[in-house]
Every structure is written in C-alpha cells, then in structure tokens.
Amino acid sequence: MSKIHVTTTINGEPIEYLCDATHTLLDVLRDQLGLTGSKEGCGSGDCGACSVIVDGRLVCACLMLGVEAEGKSVETIEGMATGDQLHPLQKKFVEIAALQCGICTPGVLVASKALLDRNPDPTETEIRYWLAGNLCRCTGYDKIVRAVMEVAAEMRK
Ligand code: FES
Ligand code: FES
Q: Which residues contact 76 (CB under 8 A, 6 or more apart)?
C-alpha cells in the first residue's frame, strides 16, 4: 500500500512522516515516532489511555487516523514537561501518589491539562465528568480528582 506524506506539529516541533492510510495517530506516535507515552488500552475509544490534544481539543489517538494530523498541532504527554521541569499536574500526581500501575496516567494527565487549559476553576463534579472517559482500575479516582483540584487552585494564584 502506498504511504501518505503528512506534515504536522507535535509538541511544538514541525514533524513529517509517511504513514499508511489505515494507521491511527496512536500507531504513528508509538510505532513510527517513538512517542510511547500515549498508551493503547482498548483501541476503541473507551479507556482514554491514548488521550492527546489536537488543536486544543482532547481526542483519543486510537480513534484518529495518522493522516488526519496533517496541518494540525498535536500535544502528547511527552510535551507536558518543560525540559526537566515537570508540569504542575505531573508534580502533584507524584507528590500525592495519584497513580499506581501508571498505565492510565499519561492519558489522565493530558486530559486534566486539557481541562485546566479551558477551565482554570473546575468544580469536583466537572472534573469527574471531564475525566469520565479516562478509566483507571487502580486508584479509585479520588486522588486524581484531588490532584487536579489542588493544581487548579495553585495555578490560579
Ligand atoms: S486506547 Fe484509545 S481510548 Fe483506549
Ligand atoms: S493507575 Fe493503574 S489504571 Fe490507573
């Protein structure tokens, strides 16, 4: 099958790649570009482990084709820290142990960042609804929600 040339931006860097028309953005990120922070839990849009931000919108990378990234700006978990400076959400998740096995964590962090980017003062209910698409089988969610609330409060100061 002939490959399609894609020009896009990932974590602020201009990127070009060739991909099959049937490959998902998650395939491209993980298998072609070596960005393995985005996880594949279900491959069907149900778990949120593959969450990325595309042109400011939270999407499941397993539900988007790699060719659809043409001309878009993609943010992945690898772009969340600035050099060796973790994003406040990453710091807080470590500080209060809002993760256990960690499989869901990249997606939860990206989704939480997408929320705070658009709503710096979410209620607990809004956080729980926003993160409803990010499944976690370990934490029980309470520490995740607490981390997002505490970071939101700190970032508003
Ligand atoms: S791997 Fe994409 S939503 Fe589960
Ligand atoms: S920390 Fe294990 S699935 Fe969330």
A: 10, 11, 29, 35, 37, 38, 52, 110
CA angle 29, 83, 65 (to 5 degrees): 15
Q: What is the pLDDT of residue 130?
A: 98
Ligand nearest to C-alpha 133:
1
pTM for the predicted model, two decimal places: 0.97
CA-based torsion, 54, 59, 61, 67: positive or negative = negative
Q: How high is the mean pLDDT of the chain?
A: 97
Angle between helices 105-118 and 88-95 (to 10 degrees): 130
Q: Is the CB of 104 under 6 A from ligand 2?
A: yes
Could you tell me the two tokens for 8?
């896009």
Q: Quick check: CB of 152 below 6 Å from ligand 1?
A: no
Based on its alpha-carbon atoms, the radius of gyration of the chain, rounded to whole angstroms, reads: 16
Ligand 1 center from residue 12 Cα (angstroms): 23
